[in-house]
Amino acid sequence: MERDDNVSGRFGSKPVRVGAEYELEVSEISKRGDGVARIKGFVIFIAGAQKGQKYKVKITKVADRFAVGKIAEEGQSSETSEPQVEKEASDDDEDDDEEES
After folding, report:
1. Domain residues of the chain, as ranges?
2. pTM value?
3. Which of 1, 57, 67, 93 is deepest in the core (most CB within 10 A)?
4. ∠ CA(32), CA(55), CA(60), 5° rounding?
5. Hey, which residues does 67 pair with through a beta bridge?
């Protein structure tokens, strides 16, 4: 029996498919502790994901109103990577000031 992805639910044709991989950024954490990302408003729950992190996610289940995925590959946090670089640069600036004095 063939599955028709264009049928059912509020979303009609769902923006994700089982087995497909997507680059997603986790925008929040669910009450159960899973990461939550969205594609065109469609919710994807990702076990073990953290808010602000980007991941390559493989979809394992698609329901009428949500999907479930697992982390296929971890990306970087946009929230934590830049401040670390700025901090290192500011530490170097302080060293330069001391050498000039």
Report:
1. 21-100
2. 0.65
3. 57
4. 60
5. 44, 62
